[in-house]
Amino acid sequence: MAFIQVVLLVLIRQVLSDTSSDYTTQCPARCDMLKEVDTLRGEMQVLRQLLNQESLLRMSLDQQVQSQKMIIQNMENDLDVLNRTTEIENLRQLLNQESLQRISSNQKLKNELDVLNRKTEDARSALSQRDNGTIAFTVSTSSALSNHNNRRIIYDKVLTNSGNAYNNITGIFTCPAPGNYVFTWSTMSRSSSEYCYAYIYHNNTQLLMSHGYGGSYNEVASNTIVLLLSVGDMVWIQTGTCRYNYGYPYTAFSGWKI
């Protein structure tokens, strides 16, 4: 466009120079040239307007391009942030899973440690009781036994239980330390021929017995035994035929380590 403007200016100057040298003889031609110059000037004005519009359009397009670039950059930044957020969330989930696994593992180790501590404490208690000779118990029944046939006697009334080897729920003495133990028991049958047989058992093996036959009077029966026990051995009293047997303070079961 600048080249066209230069050409037009050169033509205008040439026209003005020719017209000034021969104004008289060439008036019609001059008038035509002036008209042509006016036409060219109008066209140049139109061209300038078009150029201005083109410049404005280019500026608008440049602004739109820059705006789109900014939007794309923001979207890329948001996507990067989203990806980082996703990665962070994945890391958090992995950390949570690892933490849960560690907590589970720690809980398992804690449980195993508790079991070991209990076993250690039990072993220490058994060793202390063995060394100090403090394993001893005396128990009785809080009420009488009536028609208590072929069943274990549950001596629920505890008078002494050093070492806690006797269980007043099951009626069983469980040996906590190896060695020799003395056991003794007694029953008291009511008169009118209401007798009671009582046997001592060692690990399901029946050993000695006592037999109280209540004739004209109440009758006491008892027996004593010494047993060599190993850790975990069990001892209890069980009836045969037992029509009636008095409870505390007439019936008792005792044992101690010697």
Architecture overview:
This protein is α+β, with helices and mostly antiparallel strands. The protein folds into 2 domains: 1-132; 134-257, Jelly Rolls (Sandwich), CATH 2.60.120. It is built from 2 helices and 12 strands. The chain has a 5-stranded antiparallel sheet with strand order 3-1-12-6-9, with no helix packed on it. α1 packs antiparallel against α2. It is rod-shaped and about 175 Å long. The termini are far apart. The model has no long low-confidence stretch (mean pLDDT 82). InterPro entries: C1q_dom, Cerebellin_Synaptic_Org, Tumour_necrosis_fac-like_dom.
Blueprint (SSEs and pairs):
Blueprint: H1 2-21, H2 27-132, E1 136-140, E2 145-146, E3 157-162, E4 166-167, E5 172-174, E6 179-189, E7 196-202, E8 205-212, E9 219-229, E10 234-242, E11 244-245, E12 252-257
Antiparallel strand pairs: 1-3, 1-12, 2-11, 4-5, 5-10, 6-9, 6-12, 7-8, 7-10
Protein name: C1q domain-containing protein
Signal peptide: 1-17
Domain C1q: 130-258
Tally of DSSP helical segments: 2
Structural class: alpha+beta
Strand order of the largest sheet: 3-1-12-6-9
Tertiary shape: rod-shaped
Low-confidence stretches: none
Largest sheet: 5 strands, antiparallel
Order of helices and strands: HHEEEEEEEEEEEE
β-strand percent reads 25-35%
Q: How many domains make up the 3D coordinates?
A: 2
Find the count of extended strands (DSSP E, 2+ residues): 12
**Average pLDDT figure:** 82
How far apart the termini lie comes to: 128 Å
